[in-house]
Amino acid sequence: MANWLESAVARAESGDLVNDCFVGKRRQALTLLKQQAWPTRKVEAWKYTSLYPLQDKTFTIEASNDTAALSTVIDGLESIDLIFINGALQNIPSELPVGLSIASVNDSAEAWAVETYSSIKPERHLFGLVNDVLASDTVIIDVAANASIDRPVRIVNVLSAGHESHSRVLVRLGNNAKASFIEQAIGNESSFHTAFVEYDLGAEAELEHYRFALQTQDAMAVGGCHFNLATKAQLNSTLVGFGSVLSRLDVDVIHAGEYTHAKINAIYLLDNQEIFDLHTVIEHAMPNGSSEENVHGIVADQSTAVFNGRIHIHRDAQKVLAEMNNRNLLLSREATINTKPELEIYADDVRCAHGVTIAEMDKTALFYLQSRGVSLAQAQVMLNFGFINELVDQMPNQILAQWLRPQLRERFAQMEVK
Amino acid sequence: MLSIKNLHASVEDKLILKGLDLEIKPGEVHAIMGPNGAGKSTMGYVLSGKDGYTVESGTVELNGVNLLDLEPEERAKEGLFLAFQYPVEIPGVSNLEFLKASVDAQRKARGEDDLSAKEFLKQAREACKKVDLPAEFLKRGVNEGFSGGEKKRNEIMQMLLLKPKLCILDESDSGLDIDALKVVADGVNSQRSPDRSFIVITHYQRLLDYIKPDFVHVLADGKIIKSGDASLALELDAQGYGWLTEQREGDEA
Question: For a disulfide at B81, which of A14, A278, B10, B164, Cβ 3.0-4.6 Å?
């Protein structure tokens, strides 16, 4: 076992294992974790993403608030904020809309939470097990049946230099409930965090979801969002990633009821020697569901993107419609894209389609823009932006889209076409 | 306005232009006709600076500025405009965004401030109207899903907004029905002025019924082999290019 993982296990065993109502699940996770070897590139799930940057690192575990310089504000967004600073949960907002409850769990939780915790997130995620044993301050969010919460709930992880943190949130949307959740991480200095969120959607519930993994440079992040959809539940998720020395996101969508629908739009924009690794798994366990996944990426310089998209249609899941599309733009000859669709289909009356493209920037389009007076650099930004904007335009929350666009433009302006 | 002297240019090591000479004065309209493969479109691309089109020798000056030293966008800022034979589709970039970036870039080059979004939208809507494109085309991706005729009219709309000094229309009439042809011609005619010149590349005399040229040139095998007034186009329409190329071969022999 490698040093970082050894020390994490040792910490959990020596008393850091949080002793709250989830302790049973945490003990199970610890048992599993102790059986795991440090993944090398020979392990399929980590074939294209090296954990070497983390392997021998040590971080400060104590939470501290030295993050004054980092702003978490999104202009114009009236969100209900849960802010973890280096892993420590700040105040839970006291005035909440009717139908929304948020609790930090220390020693008691309702039965549903104990039952659901760690049941949506699959056991195979190594860092999910790490999060199981080390995440304190677990937050339980419950949206009552039939409630429609207008203000988005925002979960923000703020990391400062030298820190390690593990945050965990469990969300339940009751039957026919509607809500919007935003997950966000901030801080580009050397740090490591795992952030896992589980969402349990009741029948006919609608979840609008965003995850902005925009940390770059030396910030390391491994995390996941995991969704369980009961009958007629609907998920609309937008994932946006910049790369860093280590940035990995695992998404699992379990269609556990009939007539469920999941739409996932994902964007990654990588520069320098950054890595971003997106693994998505769509489990169609029941009939008549549909899923639609569009992933657009642009990779520049010597960066590496990984997209592993798995669709698993179970034997009884007839009449499922599943589509997955991954389009990539390579801006340099030294940039790498590893894209792998994995379709596993056991039902015989389904429609399942996938497509992958990898292309260079369209020189004809560049010339067309230049011939009208637009500089080469600006033309490149415009074309990059055009490639991505289609998905940004589809974000249901236009305040978030407005907040995101200038950040994308700024990033494109730095990305060189070689 | 434009002075091309003894221009030789190649594409992928194949010499296409073989000693092109052309002088254009302000306010003039020159039509370039000629058989397929003569180098007409190559001339447009060489003048506008497309990658892959290599100038081997010769000079091109626009109002005294050596165009060949400039990047494509700098040539545009000097007042050159090429209406493409095959306008490019750019999904994801709206026509409006594209037009504003173009106009702003050229205004900036002239030391003028950016137009306000409101003022620009007003101008763009007027230009749309002139070329008979619904204003909603401004919101669509650049040329995305446009018909052939809509793409050509979109080119003319760009010309109206950019107000170039020298416009090269590369087969702006191809694929157009007669109504669309009139729209394109009206757009061009509305821009004719004593300080603006046009090069109209076409296969057909038909366009020249609507855009009256001052001069007609025949480009064949990379150089101009005959020049005349508008009546030359009628002659070509009646007799084709065969008599000219034969005559030239006779002259050379």
Answer: B164
Q: In chain A, whose CA is at the least distance from the CA of B92?
A: A386
User: Which of B84, B86, B88, B167 to mutate against chain A (most A CBs within 10 Å)?
Assistant: B88
pLDDT of residue B184: 87
Length of chain A: 418
Closest to B177 in 3D by CA, of B147, B200, B145, B203 = B147
**B73, B82, B84 ranked by CB distance to A374: nearest:** B73
ipTM metric: 0.94
Q: What are A259-305's pLDDT values in tens digits?
A: 999 999 999 999 999 999 999 999 999 999 999 999 999 999 999 99
Q: Mind telling me how many Å the CA of B236 is from chain A's nearest CA?
A: 32
Q: Hey, CA dihedral for B30, B31, B35, B36, is it positive or negative? A: positive
Check if A394 contacts B (Cβ < 8 Å).
no
Instruction: Return phi, psi of residue B204, to 5°.
Output: -125, 140
Q: Which residues of B touch A387 (CB under 8 A)?
A: 92
**Mean pLDDT score of chain A:** 93
Q: Is residue B100 pLDDT above 60, yes or no?
A: yes
Maximum CA extent, chain B: 64
Residue B105, H or E segment: helix B95-109
Query: In chain A, which residue's Cα lies nearest the Cα of B109?
Result: A373
Model pLDDT for residues A407-416, shown as the tens digit of each residue: 998 998 888 8
Q: Is B199 on the interface with A (CB under 8 A)?
A: no
- For chain B, the structural domain boundaries read 2-252
3-class SS letters over chain A: CCHHHHHHHHHHHHHHCCCCCCHHHHHHHHHHHHCCCCCCCCCHHHCCCCCHHHHCCCCECCCCCCCCCCCCCCCCCCCEEEEEECCEECCCCCCCCCCEEEEECCCCCCHHHHHHCCCCCCCCCHHHHHHHHHCCCCEEEEECCCCECCCCEEEEEECCCCEEEEEEEEEEECCCCEEEEEEEEECCCCEEEEEEEEEEECCCCEEEEEEEECCCCCEEEEEEEEEEECCCCEEEEEEEEECECEEEEEEEEEECCCCCEEEEEEEEEECCCCEEEEEEEEEECCCCCEEEEEEEEEECCCCEEEEEEEEEECCCCCCCEEEEEEEEEECCCCCEEEEEEEEEECCCCCEEEEEEEEEECCHHHHHHHHCCCCCHHHHHHHHHHHHHHHHHHCCCCHHHHHHHHHHHHHHHHHCCCC
A63 band by pLDDT with thresholds 50, 70 and 90: low
- Out of A368, A378, A389, the one facing B88 most closely (by C-beta) is A368
**Nearest to B87, CA basis, from B9, B19, B174:** B174
Say which of B49, B75, B88 has its CB closest to residue A364.
B88
Instruction: Give the N- to C-terminal CA distance of chain A in Å, as an integer.
Output: 40
Give residue A67's pLDDT. 59
Please provide the CATH number assigned to the domain covering B2-252.
3.40.50.300
Residues on chain A touching B106 (C-beta within 8 angstroms): 373
Q: What is the mean pLDDT of residues A389-394?
A: 91
pLDDT at A1 over 70: no
Summarize pLDDT for A134-158 with one digit per residue, the tens. Answer: 998 899 999 999 999 999 999 999 9
pLDDT at A107: 67
For residue B94, what is the nearest residue in chain A, using CA coordinates?
Answer: A386
What's the residue count for chain B? 253
pLDDT at B253: 56
Do B101 and A374 lie within an 8 Å CB cutoff?
Answer: yes
